[in-house]
Amino acid sequence: MSNTISVSKYVAQPALCHGHVPTPASRAYIAWQQGKLYTGQLNQREACKFFPAFTSGLADPVAPTDINNMLPPPDGKIASANQGNSEFLDEPGTHWEKHKVAAGELLKFFWTYSAIYLTRRWNYFITRQDWDPSAPLKPFPIRREAVFQG
After folding, report:
1. Is 35:92 a contact under the CB 8 Å cutoff?
2. Distance between CA 103 and CA 99 in Å, rounded?
3. Residue 29 CB-density burial (10 A; 0-12 exposed, 13-18 middle, 19+ buried)
4. How far apart are CA 46 and CA 20, in angstroms?
5. What is the pTM of this model?
6. Domains in the chain and their CATH numbers?
7. pLDDT (tens digit, 9 = 90+) per residue, 52-70?
8. Residues 100-112: pLDDT tens digits?
9. What are the φ and ψ backbone dihedral angles of 62, each rounded to 5 degrees?
10. What are the counts of helices (DSSP H) followed by strands (DSSP E) for the chain?
11. Which of 17, 60, 110, 136 is the most buried (most CB within 10 A)?
């Protein structure tokens, strides 16, 4: 008689685009709170946009040995990350919650992880003061330089 023990070893593998910004609440986070997105959709709409790049296949200047970037979302599809089932996030209008920010004010960003993986850095972008909420969201009204890199 033979006794065999099978042992399986699980190792955390790198995962992409798994996290979201609850503070200050993004459009996707607010939609998730309202039950319009499930958690997977929330996380995939928040990350991996690789701004200010406009093309795919680019090496990360901070980590050139990392994987090359995916295609960033096109103009008018930024909030949805150009992914289906959340096109409503791209709707222009004044109905979106806004966060007032004064010049020189300390603005705290919080990132929530939903998968175990290495993170090289975070870049947070905000719309500029002259942003037109009646126009589709595109990189131009977003500050080209990150308001925070860490």
Report:
1. no
2. 13
3. buried
4. 5
5. 0.73
6. 15-150 (2.70.50.50)
7. 677 888 887 777 787 787 7
8. 888 888 888 888 8
9. -85, -30
10. 2, 4
11. 17
